[in-house]
Predict the 3D structure of the following.
Amino acid sequence: MVNVVSLLTTSAQRHPDRCALRFAGRRTSYRELGDAAARFGSALLSRGLVPGDRVGLFMPNCEQYLVALFGAWHAGLVPVPMNAKLAGPEVAVIVGDSGARALIHSAAAAPLVRGLELADVHTVEVDPAAPGEDGFSRLLAEGTADLAPAEVGADDLAWLFYTSGTTGRPKGAQLSHRNLLVMTWTLLADVCAYTSDDVVLHVAPLSHGSGLYALGAIARGADNIIYDGAGFDPDAVLGLVGRERVTVIAFLVPTMIVRMLAAEPADTGSLRCAVYGGAPIHVEHSRAMLDRFGPIFVQIYGQGESPMTVTYLNHASAPDIPLDSAGVAHPGVEVRILGDDDAPVPAGGEGEVCVRGDVVMRGYWNNPAATERALRGGWLHTGDIGRIDERGCLFLLDRSSDVIISGGANIYPREVEEVLVQHPGVAEVVVFGVPDETWGENVVAAVVAASSPPPPEGELISFSTAHIASFKKPKKIIYLDALPKSAYGKVLRREARRLVLAES
Ligand code: AMP
């Protein structure tokens, strides 16, 4: 059986009474999780969905998230996880592009979802504060636990992973059952060999790294605690680790680690593994985290198109790998550095990091041109610039695109620019990231005003939050007389950034 739901069904058979999930004081056993997943899937089928249909997931972390994820697979449906912080127009684009036939959303997002006026989409409300009384519970009651898991092909679609495109139009990386299973084996072999004795804490969004890495924990029958705080509170997280004797933190982005370094001393002696990645970490912070918490960390480098899996750096088993490296390729994953002509660069040279193997996506949803670009020559072109040393260690130098990574979230400058330029007081704008101790990078917009006096900074910032998620808004607006441009009239984003940094 190749359906990724088998990771749950085998655990439900083997450890039916073991605790699978803990959230907000509630516990779900493996039997209950397996049954709920089957009910979820069968109820959607009886509402008219057919295998292969997409199901949007738009809610913060909660136990229902994993029910919906595995439930969709159980019925051969395709989850489309979305960041719970997205704004209405962003959700509308993803639901429209994916052609989702159902949208499972939090009660808090109900007004936003109503505003989308979605036709022919089954919307189901999850209220983590009132389980048993929400639309999600009613949906489960319509289903049956007797539905057999769907037969799927290894290359059938299992997760549509939306990454914002540099043009602002999001692209759906099509991840297959094979991709997710190979990712899980790779995780269990190289990153963290979960066992049924593990207590695994999920603090990062289940729509991204933590959800992907939950698969391995479920496969091994571990006890998964879903952190229920409103935001990442390092003292609360470390307190939870001590109280519940957490052994593994499923996934952290570097900014969470930086914030944990500033937290009060806590008993973290139960921790044997903490996985982090998704953005660069400063060497100074790596050193401090190893000093404070010990060599329990494993760094991973991947991207939506090759989920969680390109290279890894296990600080315990490979202390000789330099801290400014993203580690070595997983066995079975080929990593090559290619030049602008797509030919391999000489050993040790810089170029684009390219990847080949069973974890690489099968292409972008409904976007053959972008697929052709990204997968040309049979290699996934990551858009990251790097080099590989003689021992096979990868060093990531920069991103070839200008993606800003703030708090572990990717922000595409163009998307922010397209909003700001709609303001009548803005003639021209260029957006870029500047280094920030806490967030990794902050969004800054350099604006040429359309009139005098220019629109106030606060007005432009609140204007942007009406259109895009708050975490994407510029933290600072700089006013310039003109933007730096090339001879062809193209705005030089890096030059603008350099000018602003030189003056600050
Ligand atoms: P996403 O597709 O949202 O997971 O973002 C993937 C991008 O995040 C990669 O292409 C890299 O630019 C960056 N990234 C992921 N992991 C690491 C890492 N360990 N070190 C540096 N950058 C990383």
